[in-house]
């Protein structure tokens, strides 16, 4: 594979990982809704005086932020992470459920203090927002049948058939790797075609695979290869909230050291995805 093609694949991988970690479970979700005029930031002292950390999250984005059974208590990986952070700060978490398209506008207008919804760190977002230390790190993965020994790298996809959603950036990565793409509507259909022997592989985010295995436990499939590029997701704050972000980073460090982050991660993914 030429250096030029490898460079193109790396760019596509970064884009796919970034868009796959943008909330809402929508792999094509890449741009944030136009922001309202941002209010000033929030200090740690102000949060502690209020006794509450108000958190924007979707509530419909399993396994990160959802209601068990559709109507149960709000839970999920991100919900538990930010709840543990709030406890370290000595305040109560208060959740404001918001659609992804309105999430950043809600933060800008101070409807909430922080977003906890698998927001990926990008250079563009760093120009407008502050991020905590990342609490999720993920790669792109090739998934094949467990018995498949022919595919162990992205180069091996040359001439193979992969199952991809046509609106997904993983579709672009598959094609640039030389694969023929069988169109599917999503992960479940891709796995079905894989098990039926109609495709050789599928590419997706590692978190999707881990969540599926933790829920279903399918021994017929495996991760055959991973991208070197990674996406990182973090809690997101308005500019001017430096003291609050510093305290949140200290809280995350404490939660990492005492094993809380790993425990929450393994509960939802069966693995430590906290980095």
Automatic annotation (TrEMBL):
Q: What taxonomic classification does the UniProt entry list for its organism?
A: Bacteria, Bacillati, Actinomycetota, Actinomycetes, Micrococcales
Is the keyword Amino-acid biosynthesis assigned to this protein?
no
Keywords annotated in UniProt: Signal
Domain Solute-binding protein family 3/N-terminal as annotated: residue spans = 52-272
The superkingdom listed in its UniProt entry is Bacteria
**Organism, as annotated:** Nesterenkonia sandarakina
**Where in the sequence is the signal peptide annotated?**
1-20
Does the record's keyword annotation contain Signal?
A: yes
Chief location of this protein within or outside the cell: other
- Where in or outside the cell? Cell envelope
Q: What protein family does this chain belong to?
A: Belongs to the bacterial solute-binding protein 3 family.
The cross-references to InterPro entries, in alphabetical order and at most eight, read: SBP_3_CS, Solute-binding_3/MltF_N
Protein's name in the database: Amino acid ABC transporter substrate-binding protein (PAAT family)
Q: Which Pfam families is this protein grouped with?
A: SBP_bac_3 (PF00497)
CDD domains in the record, alphabetically? PBP2_Ngo0372_TcyA (cd13711)
GO CC term, one of those recorded: cell envelope
List, alphabetically, the SMART domains matched: PBPb
């Amino acid at each position: 594979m030429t250096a030029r093609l490898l460079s193109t694949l790396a760019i596509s991988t970064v884009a796919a990982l970034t868009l796959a970690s943008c909330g809402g479970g929508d792999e094509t979700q890449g741009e944030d809704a136009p922001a309202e005029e941002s209010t000033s930031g929030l200090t740690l002292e102000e949060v502690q005086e209020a006794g509450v950390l108000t958190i924007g999250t979707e509530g419909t984005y399993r396994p990160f932020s959802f209601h068990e059974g559709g109507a149960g208590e709000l839970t999920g990986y991100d919900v538990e992470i930010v709840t543990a952070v709030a406890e370290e700060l000595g305040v109560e978490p208060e959740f404001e459920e918001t659609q992804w398209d309105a999430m950043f506008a809600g933060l800008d207008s101070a409807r909430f203090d922080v977003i906890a919804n698998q927001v990926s760190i990008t250079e563009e977002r760093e120009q407008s927002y502050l991020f905590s230390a990342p609490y999720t790190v993920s790669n792109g993965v090739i998934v094949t049948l467990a018995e498949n020994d022919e595919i162990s790298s992205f180069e091996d996809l040359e001439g193979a058939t992969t199952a991809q959603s046509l609106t997904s950036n993983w579709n672009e990565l598959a094609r640039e790797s030389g694969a023929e793409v069988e169109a599917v509507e999503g992960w479940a259909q891709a796995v079905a075609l894989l098990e039926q022997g109609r495709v050789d592989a599928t590419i997706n985010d590692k978190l999707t695979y881990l969540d599926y295995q933790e829920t279903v436990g399918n021994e017929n499939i495996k991760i055959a290869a991973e991208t070197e590029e990674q996406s990182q997701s973090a809690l997101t704050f308005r500019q001017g909230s430096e003291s609050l972000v510093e305290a949140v980073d200290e809280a995350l460090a404490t939660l990492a050291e005492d094993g809380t982050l790993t425990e929450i991660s393994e509960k939802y993914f069966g693995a430590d995805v906290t980095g």
